[in-house]
Amino acid sequence: MALQVGNIVDGTVSGITKFGAFIKLPDGSTGLVHISEIADFYVADIKDQLKQNDRVRVKVLSIGDDGKIRLSIKKAKQAEDVSVNNQTKEQALSFEDRLAQFLKDSEERLNDLKQNQEAKQRGGYSRRYV
User: Fold this and answer.
1) What is the value of pTM for the model shown?
2) Looking at residue 120, what DSSP letter applies?
């Protein structure tokens, strides 16, 4: 798989510095996650968040002409959260659609039953069964 900007991939922490962490990517290349891209909150010491050989999910922010790859753990997590929220909304929408269909079918059945009951009381047949 060719690495492209916007991809979300799994990698392994291969080195930690004061300013960021180096991540070994599946294609064999190495990218940098700057300390500001580790978490949604202030990170004073990267070693509190990451350890050598940790598996992390990262988003590719940019690939420079010189081959330097900028990565973000924070943005990869945000993208996954958005994806999960969208799936939840779609599931909720489909549930509401199913509920609306159920209510419509139930009302039609109830109307049929009422018509049949009225026809029996009059001594005739329902037009549905004629």
Assistant:
1) 0.60
2) H
